[in-house]
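Notebook entry, structure prediction.
Reason for the run: the old model in the group folder had no record of what sequence produced it. Starting over properly, with the input documented here first.
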Amino acid sequence: MSETELSVICKNCGSEVSPYVTECPYCGARLRKRAPKLERRGDGLEAQRPKRRRRRLRLPRPRRISAPSFAGEGFRPYATLTVILGSAILLLIQKATGDSLATFGGLIVPFGDEWWRYLTAPFAYVDVGYLFVVAVGLAIFATGVERRLGSAPTALLLLACGALGVLAAGGIASAKGDITVIAGGNGMALGAVAAWFAIRRSEAHGAIDEEYDVIGVAVAAAVLVALPLFAPTADFFSALVGGAVGGLAGLAATTLHHKE
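New structure, fully documented this time:
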C-alpha cells in the first residue's frame, strides 16, 4: 500500500500534515471538523470525493379548476326550508282538523275556479309519504339551486314550477272531462332537479374533477315522475311541466351568468 501524500499545511505552525487528520499532530490546532471518508483507489487510499446531489426537478402542482358559482358561500337555504316547512305545517293542520283538501288550497277539477288555488295546490298534501318524497328531492336539489341563484330567485323558480305544473294539469284534466283533485309539489321538486342539472352540467363543462352523478339525477327524476302511481293527488302532467319550467330556468340562469 503506498503512502498517502502530505498536502495540508497547518495554518498555526506551518507544518505539513496528513490530509486525513482533524488536528495537527505538532501543535494540536484544529484543522477541520471531521476527517474525510477514505476509499481505496488502486493500491492507495484517497479521500472520498463528495457525491453530487442531483437536483430534483419539481414540476408545478396543477391547480384545481373550481367550478364557478352564482352565489357566495355561507348561505342559508331559506326558500327551500320555507317550502318544506310550510307544506308540513299545512299537512299537520289538515290532519288535526280533519278538513278536506279543498280547504287547504287543493285544486278540484272541474269545480275549482279560484285562480289562487294554482299557487296553493303545490303546497297542499294529504299523504305523508308524498310530502316526504318531495321534501327529500327539494332538500337535495333545490338547496343546490339556491346556493347558486340565491333565495329570492329560487323561491320564484319553485313557485313557477309548481303553479305552472298545476295549471297545465288542471287544463288537461278539464279538457278530458275528468273529475280529480290535484295537489302536491311533484312538479316543484322535478323543476328543482331539472334546474340543478342544467346549472351543474354547465359548471362541469371543461372543468377538472368536477363530475356529477347522472344516474342519481335520473333516478330522482324517475321517482318524482312516478309519484302519481302511489299518491292519488299527484299528477303526471304537473310533474312534466314543472320539470320543463325548471330546466329552462336553469339554462337561462347559466346563459346569463356566462354573458356577465
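Summary: The mean pLDDT is 81.
The old model has been moved to the deprecated folder.
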